[in-house]
Amino acid sequence: MTDATDSRVAASGDALPRYGVFIDGRECAAVEDQWYATHGPFDGEAWAEIARASAADVETAVDAADRALSGPWSQMSASERGRCLMRLADLIVERAPQLAEIEMRDNGKLATEVTGQVRYTAEYYRYYGGLADKIESSVIPTDKKGVFAYTRYEAKGVVAIITPWNSPLSLTTWKLAPALAAGCTVVVKPSEFTSASMVEFAKLFEEAGFPPGVVNVITGFGNEVGEPLVTHPKVAHIGFTGGDQAGRRIYELAARHLKTVTLELGGKSPQIVFDDADIEQAVKGVVSGIFAASGQTCLAGSRLLVHESIHDEFVERLVAFVADARLGDPLDSETRIGPIATPGQFRKIMEYIEIAKGEGAHCALGGNSRPELGAGQFVEPTIFTGVTPKMRIAQEEVFGPVLVVMPFTDEDHAVELANDTSFGLAAGIWTRDLHRTMSMVERVKAGTVWVNNYRATSYTSPFGGFKQSGIGRESGVDAIREYLDTKCVWISSDLQVANPFVRR
C-alpha cells in the first residue's frame, strides 16, 4: 500500500486531492490502487478522488482492529479510554471548520447546519468519555448458598460501522463514541458519496492518544467492501444507519453468523396538529421537520396530520411560510434549501412527486425541479394535500423535501393515521392539552415523540425506532450497552464440592 497523504498535499493543476483508506493509524492507497471521483452536489464538479477499496483492504483493516483489541487498547483502563475521547472532543472543536467544509462539499448541506453538527459531535465524545468508567457491575443476591455471583461487562470486540451520506460525521459519531467507550475497536465504512470527511476525521485519533488500529476507515462501494465487512468472522457487531432495504440485507447477513446489530433505518414520521395548538409555532415546527436538510433526514416529519377544523387555515399559512424559502448555494447564508445530495436520490424524489400526482394528490406547493440552479440537483419544497392513507406517497419514505397532508376528525382518528405505516421512528404532537398529550404519547407507536417541538436530539437521550425503523438505540446510556456483553460470574465459598449429580 502506498501513502495517500502526499498526493493530496502536493495536488496541483488538474490533479484532484485524494483521500485514501485509513488503516492501522495511517492513510494509504487501497491494495489495488484504484480511485473514483466524488462530486459536489451544488456544482456537480468532481473535487476529490476516493480510494476504491476491496475485500483485501477489509481483511487488512479488520486484522488491524483485532490486533488493537487484544493489544494496547485492551490494556488501557476505562478511565484512560475516556481521557482519549475527551482529547478527541477538543480536537474536533479545533478542526470543526475544516471538517465541516469537506462535508459540505461532499453532501451539499447548508453551511450553518453542517458546522453546527460537526461542533456538536464533540459533545458526544465528551459524554461517552465521562461514561467510559461508570458502567457499573452488579452483585446479585441469589437463592444459592455458599456462592457469590456478580456481573461484568466486556467489549463485544471488533465493530463494523456503516453510515449514510446525509450526515456522515454526526451519524458515525452516534455509534463510534459509545463503541470506543465500551472498549471496542472499529472499522468504519462511510457512504461512497461522502467519504472524505471521515478519512480526514480519522487522522485526529492518533493525536488524541488512541493506539493505531483502534479506528480504521474503509472507503468504496457496498457490494465490494460493505458485505465483506459485515460477514467477516472477526467482526462481532454491526452498527448501521440507512435505508430499510439495505438494513434488511445487513440483518440477514449478520443473522447467518449470529452477529448482533443496531439498525437505525427509515421513517415516515407523523406531525399531528390539534385544533388547540399554537398554529404559528406548529407551522415552524412542521417546516423544520420536513424541509431542513432538504428533507434528507431519517426523522423527517413527512406526514402532516391536521385536525379538520383548522386544516385549510394551517395549509394556507404553511404554504405562505415556505413559498419564499430560497434555494441555492449551501455556502450562502441566505440559502434555506440546498441541493439534493446525490443524482440517484434526486431522481427518486422526482419520481415520487410524479407518483403522487398520478395517485390524485393535489400539489399545493412546489413539485418541480430547478435545473437553472447549480448543476440542477434541486427540488422545490413540495406540499401535497388530498392525500389518502393508502397512497404510496403516504406510506413510503421519499427522503426529500416532500410533505403530505391529511385531515383527521378526532384523537382516535389521529392515532389510527399516525400508526398506519410500517415505520415507527418518530412523531410530533402539537397541542396545549396535557391530558391529550399523555394519551397520545402512550398510543403513538414511535421511538421518539416530540411534543410542541421537533428534531431535538441529544447525546444524553436514546434514539431509535419501532417496527421497520430499526433495532436498538443510539445515544444516552442505552447506546453503550449495545457494544457490551454481559458476563455472569459465580464464585464458590464452600470448601466442599456439592454432589455432582444434583443440580444446585
The CATH architecture of the largest domain comes to: 3-Layer(aba) Sandwich
Under CATH, the homologous superfamily of the largest domain reads Aldehyde Dehydrogenase, Chain A, domain 1
Report the strand count.
23
Strand order of the largest sheet: 15-16-17-14-13-19-20
Q: How many separate domains?
A: 2
- Work out the helix count: 17
Can you put this structure into words, describing what you see?
It comes from Salinicola rhizosphaerae. Keywords: Oxidoreductase. This is Aldehyde dehydrogenase. The active site is at 264. This protein is an alpha/beta fold and 504 residues long. It has 2 domains: 52-265 and 469-487, Aldehyde Dehydrogenase, Chain A, domain 1 (3-Layer(aba) Sandwich), CATH 3.40.605; 270-451, Aldehyde Dehydrogenase, Chain A, domain 2 (3-Layer(aba) Sandwich), CATH 3.40.309. The protein has helices at 5-10, 55-70, 72-75, 78-107, 111-131, 168-182, 196-202, 204-208, 222-231, 244-256, 279-291, 311-323, 343-359, 392-395, 411-419, 434-443, 476-481, and strands at 18-19, 21-23, 26-28, 35-39, 46-51, 139-140, 147-155, 158-162, 185-189, 215-217, 235-241, 260-264, 270-273, 303-307, 362-365, 382-385, 402-408, 423-424, 426-430, 448-451, 466-467, 470-471, 484-492. α4 (78-107) runs antiparallel to α5. The longest helix has 30 residues, at 78-107. It is globular. Mean pLDDT is 94; it is low at 1-13.
